[in-house]
Specification:
Elements (H helix, E strand, L loop, with lengths): L18 H12 L10 E5 L5 H6 L5 E6 L11 E5 L13 E7 L8 H11 E12 L17 H11 L4 E7 L1 H18 L6 H4 L2 H22 L1 H6 L5 E5 L6 E7 L3
Parallel strand pairs: 1-2, 1-4, 2-3, 4-5
Antiparallel strand pairs: 5-8, 6-7, 6-8
Keywords: Methyltransferase, Transferase
GO molecular function: methyltransferase activity
Protein name: Class I SAM-dependent methyltransferase
Length: 259
């Protein structure tokens, strides 16, 4: 029962209940071009449960992960962890990183412009930012853990305000992924019919976080029971990158700091 109260924002591969979200995250890490990792100084903002350390750190010269709390995963020999409260990157020198990874983070940050200014500050000239965040068009319900979600045009405008050479692609899912997504949407739409006062949109975020977490995890549990084969068999390579449109699940941003 305690697992049902664990926030759905920090997920790992310990349960197939969250397999869809976990594999969606893994895909983004796998989509990073090796040239942005190999023998590079890499900084990850918001490392969460830390599975990226196992996926990426061994390829880098040094991998520095930051978050509000240290992940349970063991740190590889060439990796380090630093507590940070974003958007500030306190104690991180300017022009010091070849690559900054910021996956599923910016939607949690109230001052998104401050975060991007800090990322630009710590990147070396010619360094790359890789960033993902959900597409608002494809969100199934209000997420009280998110300060905001972005429409495609807003995402492009935000990134290009700080990185003129930024490109925004979309992360999409194949038929297996979209079958799960469709069943998830049907379940949540059915639950929403009981919210006759539209409390999910009216409650302050801090009051809605507990019910959201519980209902979201219960919903994923019942999806696992109902369509176990689909839920369990989703893999990271069931996702793919393609040109941006409003039907992508996430945005995949690649930006470069001008020399």
């Amino acid at each position: 029962m305690l697992a049902l109260l664990k926030t759905a924002e920090r997920i790992n591969n310990t349960s197939f209940v969250n397999n869809y979200v976990f594999q969606r995250h893994v895909f983004a890490y796998k989509a990073i071009p090796m040239e942005y990792l190999l023998h590079k100084q890499v900084l990850e903002l918001g490392c969460g449960e830390g599975y990226s350390l196992d996926l990426l750190a061994r390829h880098t010269a040094h991998y520095r992960a930051v978050d509000k709390k240290k992940p349970p995963a063991a740190l590889p020999a060439n990796a380090s962890f630093q507590t940070c409260h974003l958007p500030r990157l306190t104690g991180i020198a300017g022009n010091s990183y070849d690559t900054v990874i910021c996956f599923q983070v910016i939607e949690h940050i109230r001052d998104d412009h401050a975060l991007l200014r800090e990322i630009k500050r710590v990147l070396k000239p010619g360094g790359r930012l890789l960033l993902t965040t959900p597409n608002k068009y494809m969100s199934l319900s209000r997420n009280p853990f998110h300060v905001r979600e972005y429409l495609p045009s807003a995402m492009q405008a935000l990134m290009r305000a700080h990185f003129p050479r930024a490109t925004v692609a979309g992360i999409y899912g194949n038929d297996t992924v979209m079958s799960y997504y469709g069943e998830n949407k049907r379940h949540l739409d059915a639950l929403a019919r009981f919210d006759i006062f539209r409390l999910q949109y009216r409650l302050p975020a801090f009051l809605f976080k507990g019910p959201y977490t519980l209902l979201n995890n219960i919903n994923r549990y019942f999806l696992l029971r109902k369509i176990e084969d689909v839920t369990v068999n989703i893999r990271h390579n069931d996702f793919y990158l393609q040109a941006l449109d409003q039907h992508c699940l996430d945005y995949f941003v690649t930006a470069v700091k001008e020399s």
